[in-house]
Amino acid sequence: MKRDHLPLLLGLLGLTAVTTQAQDSLNCRYVGCWPFGPCTSVEADPARNLCFAGSGGGVFVLDVSNPSSPVLRSQAIYGRGNANGQHYDAATQRLYLASDDGGLEIWDVADPASPAQLGNLAFGDRAWDVRASGDCAFVALHSAGLRAVDISNPGNPVEVGRIDLDGQVWGMDLAGNYAYICNANEGLRIIDVSNPTSPDTVGRFDPDGDVRGVTVSGNYAYVGDWYGHVRIADVSDPANPTEVGSLEYNRGDFKYSALDDTLLYITSGGYGIKVVNVADPANPDSIATFGSSYMEDVALGGRLFVANRYRGLQVVDVSDPSQPDTLSNLVCPSLSRSVAVDGRYAYLCNDHYGLIVLDLLDPGFPVPVVRFDALGQVYDVAVRDGYAYVCENWNGFTVLDVSDPRNPDSLGNTDPGGYSTTVVLQDDYAYVACDDHGLSVIDISDPANPQEIGNYRTREDAREVAVQGNYAYVSTGDTVGIVVVDVSDPAQPDSVGVLNVSGYPAGIVTDGNEAYVAVPHTSNGTVHALDISDPANPDQLSTINLLGSAEKLFIIDDFLYVTRYNDGVAVVDISDPSSMETVGYYDLPSSALGVAGQRYYIYVANSSVGLWVLGNSLIGIEEEESQGRGTARPALPTFVSRASLLAELERDPALVAFDATGRQVSNIEPGVLFLRDVSAARRVVLVD
Predict the structure, then answer these.
(1) Cβ neighbours of residue 208 under 8 Å, at least 6 residues apart?
(2) CA 119/CA 142 separation, integer angstroms
(3) What is the mean pLDDT of the segment spanning 501-526?
């Protein structure tokens, strides 16, 4: 394993005080997040040699003066939803984000090292793309058409106009007084926005395909569809667009395109990028194809910047467009699958990106401090007594020494077979669900030398496991259900019973004489409460239906936390297992894949938007959460160097530095510090 220490800026919420959008919730509230994930959007400022790489719900600001070695300037742009689209206005040095459920977000990036959020506006639908011109921003909503927003006061954006459209919206462009909207099977809609308070459809171009992307330049619109075609339309008369040329490219989802003089760069989802010469729009000529899967977005700024989803940001030299040359690649986080919390640290399993350790000293501002770059996909982790036990899918099972969470060390690995997906601990043993290998029992008495000592092959793939006393409960397929395995002799595990639940069971947890099983469904998942006082004959006590799916489970006090995939998290009261009741929920962006709890806090591995921290109001509000609570976002801390901080302390003898625990410090080390004088306190972040 490779250990990477992350820059301190990676985990800090670079947010100024603005009004936040309301989420669909009950007895749960937003506390904070670390929202980074796959790279899906990109913008550039060639005059300042900057690139803005959308990563999940966050944005990396990069100095690309040396394109072979981009330099990170900031990771302080935190959105409240996936950064589906971006627009950069060089005149105002503002970045506009189409932030999915988070709506429109406006960021001041005049100082690339310290971006500041100016304002945001939610719409009740997913913001998919955005363009700005003058005092107006136009936001394409995925299921609700186009919105015009007055941004003359960026701290208080106001919707001033709208046009609702049938069908889904996948992208847009803005040219002059017209917005060009990709309206899926409804074609390309051309909307007059000269009066933003009353946008009006004036033309439609229907290329007989599912329209996904558009770029407009001069008199031409370059329109791509799902089926592998680019249609070139003359839009000199917007009311009567006319097709003048077309091109077929590799079949795949047309994502976005960028035009550089006469060269069109097309991203096509799973088929890389195609370079097309459109000097003669009637006869477009493909001159090169490069890259591979998951090409999401492109931007031009002296070179080509490619948002390559799970592979991060690529910087490509296209000085010879027939021979594109990749100069550098910034690896971005991937999908966050599960999370474990131990003390003040969260351990986030981030698929191909590895295991990320985040400091939760302030739960409103999770700060990643280190990551392990695993050989396989990191699916699950359990932490106990200074050790982390990691399921790495096809790479087996790994033990890390995390007695110092900021400096973890790899101790040992074993590959029990199959795909290691879930782990629970009891005594000196780890119980691992290993797909077609079934249940693996691993001796961890010597953490440096983990060894499989027992195995029980379930008839169907082992998905999840829970352990109570001498019995392991393994969720498998829909024809078998829950297999009860006697592990009193860990070297000879053996089935003693089966409970078939309706559906394909997923998450399972135990609590004394009860077990709880989640059964997923796209719209109506269920949780089953089981009496396991007689392990060989488990008996169903009750079932509760949830709005949305039911996937992963975590118990704290009398509450069961249930991830609902695309519908966030539910809180179920299990004080009476025979009569469970949903008492809370929070609708999250992206897909809730894993959950953990500690005191008042709910920690959610939220797929493409990292780690989200919620509060369970039914347990009680912790003092520590006050900074991240409510309708105002905390102010961005000041980022300073060691030298400047020492100089400031020397200049002002009345100024005193404290660490985050409130202790006065004289040995200045990198981290979050508070400076206090007789009048006020302010937070600073020491970056070197």
Answers:
(1) none
(2) 21
(3) 90
Beta-carbon contacts of 563 under 8 Å, excluding residues fewer than 6 positions away, are: 507, 549, 550, 551, 552, 553, 569, 592, 593, 594, 595, 604
Average pLDDT over every residue of 553-579 = 96
Smallest CA-to-CA distance from 211 within 272, 257, 244, 178 is with: 257
**If 0-12 CB within 10 Å is exposed, 13-18 middle and 19+ buried, where does residue 320 land?**
exposed
- Residue 599 CA, chain-centre distance (Å), reads 24
Q: Which residue has the tokens 């001041």?
A: 108
For the chain, give the mean pLDDT: 86
Q: In the chain, where are the structural domains located?
A: 338-491+500-509+584-628, 638-686
User: Per the structure block, which two tokens stand in for 294?
Assistant: 């998951």
Who contacts 338 (Cβ-Cβ below 8 Å, separation ≥6)? 348, 349, 379, 380, 381, 552, 593, 594, 605
Label each residue of 24-64 as H, E or C. Answer: CEECEEEEEEECCCCEEEEEEEHHHCEEEEEECCEEEEEEC
CA–centroid distance for 13 within its chain: 15
pLDDT in tens, 458-502: 999 999 999 999 999 999 987 778 999 999 999 999 999 998 887
d(CA 77, CA 118): 11
Q: Which helix (H) or strand (E) holds 605?
A: strand 601-605
How would CATH label the architecture of 338-491+500-509+584-628?
7 Propeller (2.130)
Backbone angles phi, psi at 125, to 5 degrees: -150, 170
What's the pTM value of the predicted model, to 2 decimals? Answer: 0.84
Angle at 364 between CA 679 and CA 359, to 5 degrees: 100
Torsion of CA 531, 534, 535, 541, to 10 degrees: -10
Check: CB of residue 340 under 8 Å from CB of residue 346.
yes
How far does Cα 90 stand from its chain's mean position? 27
How confident is the model over 245-254, as a mean pLDDT?
Answer: 70
The kind and range of the H/E element at 651 are helix 642-651
Does 160 score more than 80 pLDDT? yes
pLDDT at 663: 54
Q: Of 349, 306, 341, nearest to 327 (Cα)? A: 306
Residue 96 CA to residue 335 CA, distance in Å, equals 24
Average pLDDT over residues 592-599: 95
CA pair distance 59, 56, nearest whole angstrom: 8
- The whole-number pLDDT of residue 351 equals 86
